[in-house]
Specification:
Number of strands: 0
Radius of gyration: 39 Å
Structural class: mainly alpha
Helix content: over 70%
Largest sheet: none
Length: 104
Amino acid sequence: MAAPGEPGGEAAFARRIDPAREPGLSPQQRLLMAQVERAQRQRALQRRLRGRNVLLALGIGAVAFGIYGYTFYSVSQERFLDELEQEAEAARARAQARAESAAS
């Protein structure tokens, strides 16, 4: 394997450095590196949270849509108003029959 300084060796940008121990860095450069690292960590955190938020939104939407669909399904199967209407018709018919029998 070639030495790092020779052609075909490791690239200089791939080498990890410790900013606190690097002798050639000024305090301003160290501060800038720390700020850049914080910004990168923040972006990575936001990316992870965005993915979680999308999954949460899809889950809540699915639950809401399921409740909405189930409500329509259960209401469509209820026939209590039809039964009340039939009972009212029967009561009117009985009342009319009593009125006719009482009138004769």
